[in-house]
């Protein structure tokens, strides 16, 4: 993979006569695989690779960017282990083997390594781990053994000419806003579907896409409704229009989850300015902040699934909808590929069993039947538990997280000329519905708490203060 970042794609691009808009792009399956891989990236991985490539010019993705920066700034001593924090800063994916086979390595893939005991006792259940820091314990002898990497995993570490997510026998048509169609749809079909009115005056150009262009496309897909035009024609950028305060449509499975009265609830104290109803900040325990940080482990496609394909990020929504509905099964590499792309699992061991979004983890490979997962030394308090207990945090509207400091809060209120008598405390219950609202708002808004919780706050009475 030494030359993986030097790979290039040759694209055929149709633009309008005025050279102000890309009408559509024709590309091979290898380029389509790159686009589809966007859906498999954990949200924290997206922030990380864009920050690494663009530095200070990295795009702001809703409140996720500020949440990520606050994670970077938090002292690792507040975490159970330094490794637990690192898994959030650079989340692993359940698609690492597939990344290794992409024509271009744009996201610094982590080789998927599964470790097992070198000399397990006879007839014992073999323990297996995908963590570098773990020494699996045999379930029968309770002894820890030296780990070895499974050799068959190493065989996946090379680029594939045979396609990764799609078959390599057909080109694809990609619209300016990232709708994808097999080119079998034909010229008249694409003109009709995309509503092109000036196709007879279109001009073809050839474009070469390399590493920098792929990074630019990933960036533009989050901040523009027309990423190809922005990238290839230096078109003025369109900011995504976010339906502030709207409730996300959820999938049927998620609605059923919300109806479950046994679903975990997190208590959150929210401080609101009485005079105008403005959310000032939230006072949260470590369980709520663990939930916020766990958002970084969620693959983009799983976020789309949870929000029924309506994140309000138009290009990403189109990419997801094309994968879920438009592309025929026969164009995918395997019968299960569509399902994996549109409902990608979280990598094993990073989400707690009582996570309020009820996410699903990846399963062991088929050839690992009758093998148990071992726990990671990174999570001594249980998987998905990142922060030590008890701790209390200050969470701002844009999801900036800092340790609670009363002096700092009082100073900020004084600077804003907000008297203490104008501040009320509202106690909220954060369950699956509120978690979905926070997930959606974190992707699209820099006032995530207000957008996600304002309706609930307005119906709550302020907490009664004790009589002096």
Summary keywords:
468 residues, alpha+beta, 5-stranded antiparallel beta sheet, globular, disordered C terminus
Kindly describe this structure.
The chain has a domain at 1-42 and 160-239 and 299-345. The protein is of the alpha+beta class. The relative contact order is 0.18. It contains 17 helices and 14 strands. Strand 1 and strand 2 (22-27) form a beta hairpin. Helix 8 packs across helix 9 (227-233) and helix 16 packs antiparallel against helix 17. Strands 7-6-2-1-8 form a 5-stranded antiparallel β-sheet. Strands 13-12-10-9-14 form a 5-stranded antiparallel β-sheet. Strands 5-3-4-11 form a 4-stranded mixed β-sheet, with no helix packed on it. Mean pLDDT is 83; it is low at 150-158, 236-259 and 464-468.
Number of helices: 17
Which structural class should the secondary elements be placed in?
alpha+beta
> What are the segments in which pLDDT stays under 50 over at least 5 consecutive residues?
150-158, 236-259, 464-468
Q: What quaternary form is this?
A: single chain
- Please tell me how large the radius of gyration is: 24 Å
Instruction: Tell me the overall shape.
Output: globular
Main sheet strand line-up: 7-6-2-1-8
Q: Provide mean pLDDT, rounded.
A: 83
Give the total of beta strands.
14
Helix content: 25-40%
First-to-last CA distance: 69 Å
Main beta-sheet strand count, sense and barrel state: 5 strands, antiparallel
Strand content: 5-15%
């Amino acid at each position: 993979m030494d030359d993986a970042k030097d790979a290039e794609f040759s694209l055929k691009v149709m633009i309008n006569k005025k050279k102000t808009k890309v009408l559509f792009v024709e590309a091979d399956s290898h380029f389509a695989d790159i686009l589809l891989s966007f859906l498999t990236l954990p949200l924290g991985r997206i922030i990380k690779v864009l920050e690494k490539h663009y530095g200070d010019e990295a795009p702001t993705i809703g409140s996720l960017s500020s949440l990520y920066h606050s994670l970077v700034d938090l002292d690792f001593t507040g975490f159970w282990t330094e490794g637990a924090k690192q898994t959030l800063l650079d989340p692993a994916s359940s698609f690492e083997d597939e990344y290794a086979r992409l024509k271009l390595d744009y996201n610094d893939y982590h080789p998927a390594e599964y470790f097992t005991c070198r000399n397990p006792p006879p007839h014992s259940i073999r323990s297996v781990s995908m963590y570098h820091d773990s020494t699996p314990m045999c379930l029968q002898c309770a002894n820890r053994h030296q780990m070895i990497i499974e050799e068959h995993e190493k065989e996946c570490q090379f680029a594939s000419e045979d396609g990764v997510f799609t078959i390599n026998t057909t080109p694809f048509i990609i619209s300016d806003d990232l709708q994808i169609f097999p080119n079998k749809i034909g010229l008249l079909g694409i003109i009709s579907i995309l509503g092109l009115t000036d196709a007879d005056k279109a001009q073809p150009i050839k474009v070469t896409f390399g590493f920098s262009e792929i990074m630019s496309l990933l960036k533009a897909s989050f901040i523009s409704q027309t990423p190809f035009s922005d990238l290839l024609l230096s078109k003025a950028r369109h900011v995504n229009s976010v339906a502030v305060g709207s409730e996300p449509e959820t999938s049927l499975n998620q609605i059923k989850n919300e109806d479950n009265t046994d679903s975990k609830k997190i208590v959150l104290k929210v401080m609101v300015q009485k005079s105008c109803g403005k959310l000032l900040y939230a006072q949260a325990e470590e369980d709520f902040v663990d939930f916020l940080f766990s958002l970084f482990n969620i693959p983009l496609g799983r976020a789309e699934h949870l929000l029924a394909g309506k994140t309000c990020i138009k290009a990403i929504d189109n990419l997801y909808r094309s994968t879920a509905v438009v592309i025929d099964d026969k164009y995918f590499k395997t019968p299960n590929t569509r399902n994996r792309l549109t409902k990608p699992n979280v990598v094993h061991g990073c989400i707690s069993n009582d996570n309020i979004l009820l996410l699903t983890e990846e399963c062991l490979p088929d050839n690992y039947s009758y093998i148990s997962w071992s726990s990671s030394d990174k999570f001594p308090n249980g998987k998905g538990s990142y922060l030590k207990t008890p701790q209390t945090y200050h969470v701002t509207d844009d999801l900036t997280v800092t340790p609670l400091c009363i002096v700092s809060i009082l100073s900020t209120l004084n600077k804003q000329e907000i008297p203490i008598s104008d501040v009320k405390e509202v106690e909220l219950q954060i369950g699956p519905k509120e978690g979905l609202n926070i997930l959606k708002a974190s992707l699209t808004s820099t006032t995530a708490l207000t957008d996600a919780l304002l309706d609930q706050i307005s119906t709550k009475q302020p907490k009664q203060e004790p009589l002096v």
